């Protein structure tokens, strides 16, 4: 499979090289004609679209290939090279959406991701407010320490979580994974939200208190609408990181709450290489992320900057 | 009656407010005048209850309100920045204090429309604050302060970020609006002429201390000390250190100012003489005026007035003259000081003239 991909990549590369060799003579000719610097530039500009286009093609290639495979039969995939499905089939998708082994994977993945996002955002909101508005002993150190939680590999925490959750009968439930993912999602949520909150002038809080708002009422009625986009971005990041995390999700579940990514690896090992099925599962795994990205597309850059733009 | 008793506010190692005692009466207009960082905002936050004093106490109508949260006090505050709730319409912004207080719908509507009409906001009630101009945003904030009908209204340089025309208009309007309600009205500003235009009482602030509190005109005319005089002068106060000898102040260089009659008795030593830029003139204002020769440094012409910056001995003076006055730089001209308008301060900066403070 990989060799096929690389082969295609090389071919693309060849085409690219040939295309790139054409422009220089044209621009040289323009340069020879005196006083036509502007037109020379215009000719160069005509090929400027080439670089991003090639880049995007390279980026999209694996996704296209996955989509391509998902509509092929496993035999065709293994049989040889084809740029598009010769015998188009949606059998893989039907299998996934009707077989509980498959769709339960999605359900458990989605449930722990949602639980995690809800916990992370609701816990991070007041914490971020405190970091944004109050000065207290060691606040800066604590704030930085939060972020360092993200720097430890999840594998470090897999064993303690496994033992702890087994002891308190939380093992193999969506809650186990959701709580474990809080380890890295809450610090992230606090950091992003703090950035957004610090963008709201403190005087708005004070004006609300002067008007007579109690803190909870102010927070829900006045403050949260002001950082709505920040909350959206934070929720997206929590969703994303929880959705793509595999190690903890796999370690802390066995049967009942198995995440989709783990289901995918198991199917590959038991019933041979059902590549079409795997590809379809892969496509369906990308879909939720793509949908969520669509909603926060205008704010996402600010989120990556942790709200500090 | 709002009373601050020996209030001090320290943040970290810096003292923002230093031992301030102040009494403000109901229905009074009070101006806090001082340069940036003098502590005007800090003092207002203490009055409002947004901050708790490090030491000292705040009393309202005979009750100690130190440490009582701002929600439980009946105050309104408007900031220099235009602070509104961006997610709400102008109507909801103005209605907000009434809604929180749980007022009836009909009453809210009446109050909001009254305040909006007063501040010419009626056409914008359905818009959100951020879609309005700066002046309209600030008027929304002011309208919210009006509907609250608070017993203490604090305006922290409310007009500083507005354009000239609107500032003039609102400055005349605001004291009238709040005077009718019998509230304690406090207005912070950095501009001496704004304090004079507002009238009422003025407290001059410098480095966290109140240097003087009294009727605005009195503070302006008879400052207790040099710091107050400097705070209450724009363009800056002209000063010069002279030695008193008998009946005149002398500077090595031939300048001699007669000592005002009421100060005849003060000791013969060094004094700082201060006078306002408009008490320095090109024409002899009175037979007793003293002529000095000074070198022109720069002339700023605003149209109806000219500010002539002069170098005299080792000090820099500003002369305010009507009309357009053109001088070459480095030209030496004769100017007159009117001894009737000089202020005399001793070595400690205290006024040598006996003054009375407003009963505290």
Automatic annotation (TrEMBL), chain A:
Domain ABC transmembrane type-1 residues, every copy? 106-296
Q: Which UniProt keywords apply?
A: Cell membrane, Membrane, Transmembrane, Transmembrane helix, Transport
Q: Which Pfam families does the UniProt record give?
A: BPD_transp_1 (PF00528)
Instruction: Name its cellular compartments.
Output: Cell membrane
Topology within the bilayer: Multi-pass membrane protein
**Entry's transmembrane regions:** 47-67, 110-131, 143-163, 175-197, 218-244, 275-296
Show the ranges annotated as biased composition (Basic and acidic residues).
7-17
Name the PANTHER family on file: ABC TRANSPORTER PERMEASE PROTEIN, MALTOSE TRANSPORT SYSTEM PERMEASE-RELATED
UniProt cross-references to Gene3D superfamilies, sorted A to Z: MetI-like
**Protein name, entry field:** ABC transporter, permease protein
The species this protein was found in: Mesorhizobium ventifaucium
Q: Where is this region: Disordered?
A: 1-31
Q: Which family does it belong to?
A: Belongs to the binding-protein-dependent transport system permease family.
SUPFAM superfamilies in UniProt: MetI-like
Coiled-coil boundaries: none
TrEMBL record, chain B:
Spell out the Pfam families in the cross-references.
ABC_tran
Which InterPro entries does the record associate with it? AAA+_ATPase, ABC_transporter-like_ATP-bd, ABC_transpr_FbpC, ABC_transpr_MalK/UgpC-like, Mo/tungstate-bd_C_term_dom, NA-bd_OB-fold, P-loop_NTPase
Renumbered to this chain, the signal peptide range is none
Q: RNA-binding: present as a keyword of the record? A: no
ABC transporter domain location is 2-232
Q: Which SUPFAM superfamilies match?
A: MOP-like, P-loop containing nucleoside triphosphate hydrolases
Q: Which UniProt keywords apply?
A: ATP-binding, Cell membrane, Membrane, Nucleotide-binding, Transport
Gene3D superfamilies per the UniProt record, alphabetical:
2.40.50.100, Nucleic acid-binding proteins, P-loop containing nucleotide triphosphate hydrolases
Say which family it is in.
Belongs to the ABC transporter superfamily.
Q: What is this protein called?
A: ABC transporter related protein
The species this protein belongs to is Mesorhizobium ventifaucium
């Amino acid at each position: 499979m990989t060799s096929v991909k690389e082969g295609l990549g090389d071919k693309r590369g060849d085409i690219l090289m040939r295309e790139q060799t054409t422009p220089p003579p044209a621009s040289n000719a323009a340069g020879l004609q005196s006083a036509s610097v502007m037109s020379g530039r215009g000719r160069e500009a005509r090929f400027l679209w080439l670089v991003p286009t090639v880049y995007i093609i390279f980026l999209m290639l694996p996704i296209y290939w996955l989509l391509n495979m998902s509509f092929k039969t496993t035999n065709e995939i293994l049989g040889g090279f084809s740029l598009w499905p010769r015998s188009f089939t949606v059998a893989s998708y039907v299998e996934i959406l009707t077989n509980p082994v498959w769709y339960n994977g999605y359900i458990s993945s989605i449930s722990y991701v949602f639980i995690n996002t809800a916990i992370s955002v609701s816990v991070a909101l007041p914490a971020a407010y405190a970091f944004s508005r109050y000065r207290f002993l060691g606040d800066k150190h604590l704030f930085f320490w939060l972020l360092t939680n993200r720097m430890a590999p999840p594998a470090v925490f897999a064993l303690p979580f496994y033992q702890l959750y087994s002891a308190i009968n939380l093992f193999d439930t969506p809650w186990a994974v959701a709580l474990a993912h809080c380890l890295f999602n809450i610090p992230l949520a606090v950091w992003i939200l703090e950035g957004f909150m610090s963008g709201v002038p403190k005087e708005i809080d004070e004006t609300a208190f002067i008007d007579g708002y109690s803190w909870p009422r102010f927070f829900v009625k006045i403050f949260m609408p002001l950082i709505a986009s920040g909350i959206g971005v934070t929720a997206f990041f929590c969703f994303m990181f929880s959705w793509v995390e595999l190690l903890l999700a796999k370690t802390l579940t066995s049967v009942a709450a198995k995440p989709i990514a783990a289901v995918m690896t198991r199917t590959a090992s038991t019933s041979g290489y059902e590549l079409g099925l795997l590809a379809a599962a892969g496509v369906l795994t990308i879909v939720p992320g793509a949908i969520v990205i669509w909603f926060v597309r205008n704010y996402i850059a600010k989120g990556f900057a942790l709200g500090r733009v | 009656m709002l009373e601050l008793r020996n209030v001090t506010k320290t943040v970290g190692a810096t003292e923002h407010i230093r031992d301030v005692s102040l009494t403000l009466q109901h229905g009074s207009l009070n101006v806090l005048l001082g340069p940036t960082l003098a502590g005007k905002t800090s003092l207002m936050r203490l009055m409002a209850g947004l901050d708790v004093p490090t030491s000292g106490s705040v009393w309202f109508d005979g009750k100690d309100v130190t440490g009582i949260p701002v929600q439980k006090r009946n105050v309104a505050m408007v900031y220099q920045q235009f602070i509104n709730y961006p997610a709400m319409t102008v109507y909801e912004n103005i209605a907000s204090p009434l809604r929180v207080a749980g007022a009836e719908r009909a009453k809210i509507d009446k109050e909001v429309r009254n305040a909006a009409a007063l501040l010419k906001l009626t056409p914008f009630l359905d818009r959100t604050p951020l879609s309005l101009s700066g002046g309209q945003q600030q008027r929304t904030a002011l309208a919210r302060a009006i509907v609250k009908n608070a017993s203490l209204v604090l305006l922290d340089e409310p007009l500083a970020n507005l354009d000239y025309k609107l500032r003039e208009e609102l400055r005349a309007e605001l004291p009238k609006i709040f005077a009718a309600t019998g509230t304690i009205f406090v207005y912070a500003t950095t501009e001496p002429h704004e304090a004079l235009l507002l009238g009422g009482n003025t407290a001059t602030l410098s480095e966290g201390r109140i240097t003087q509190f009294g009727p605005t005109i009195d503070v302006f005319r008879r400052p207790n000390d040099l710091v107050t005089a400097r705070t209450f002068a724009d363009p800056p106060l002209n000063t010069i250190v002279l030695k008193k000898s008998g009946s005149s102040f002398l500077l090595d260089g031939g300048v001699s100012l007669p000592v005002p009659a009421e100060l005849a008795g003060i000791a013969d030593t060094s004094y700082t003489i201060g006078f306002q830029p408009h008490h320095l003139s090109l024409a002899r204002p009175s037979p007793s005026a003293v002529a000095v020769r000074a070198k022109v440094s720069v002339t700023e012409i605003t149209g109806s007035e000219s500010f002539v910056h002069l170098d005299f001995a080792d000090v820099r003076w500003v002369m305010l003259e009507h009309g357009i006055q053109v001088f070459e730089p480095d030209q030496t001209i004769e100017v007159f000081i009117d001894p009737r308008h000089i202020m005399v301060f001793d070595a400690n900066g205290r006024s040598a003239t006996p003054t009375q403070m407003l009963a505290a």
